[in-house]
Automatic annotation (TrEMBL):
Signal peptide: none annotated. Residues 130-185 form the HAT C-terminal dimerisation domain. SUPFAM superfamilies: Ribonuclease H-like (SSF53098). Residues 3-63 form the hAT-like transposase RNase-H fold domain. This is HAT C-terminal dimerisation domain-containing protein. It holds the Pfam family hAT-like_RNase-H. One of its GO terms (molecular function) is protein dimerization activity. InterPro entries: hAT-like_transposase_RNase-H, HATC_C_dom, RNaseH-like_sf. It comes from the Eukaryota.
Amino acid sequence: MFMVLDMKDKYEKYWGDYDTISDYVFFATLLDPQCKSKFMKVVFTQMLKAKNKDKKMSADEIESKARAKVINIECKLDKFFKTYLERSNMTSSSQQETPEEVVNFDDENEFFRSYMTSGSFPLTSSESQLQRYLNEDPIGFDKGYDILTWWKNNAVRFPIVARMARDILGMQISTVASESTFSNGR
């Protein structure tokens, strides 16, 4: 009986209240294409409802607080993304670029002339990779889903976010050995 209470206390200490959970756990949830912000909002809403047994908060207050928590986590992840972006820009600017050979097209080819004079499309939008990723709908739950494979396959679309996902999802969440988590002091 005491072992169960000890385990419950450890659970409550590390997982019971979302204010005590590491931001990296939330980052991992946002970087899971099955979950993202929508899932987090549902989880936070359920956690707040469970804490609101005395009915001090209205349903609107709970929704508002859950939405604010998701926005807060997204802002923190965006700051984290910007550090990856800066590091990526420093790496690419420090590499020596070699001039590319210019290819001259035949002036008589109307197709290439119109293409070359048509103007260019912006290579980047005002929306960051992270925002584009978060704004896409979740992919839906699949039993055979492998999150690391998904990120490997989508690294071309979101190269910096994929690097973040690889680093965060590969991170050990807890430093407590599993044996000590379930030990009862023997």
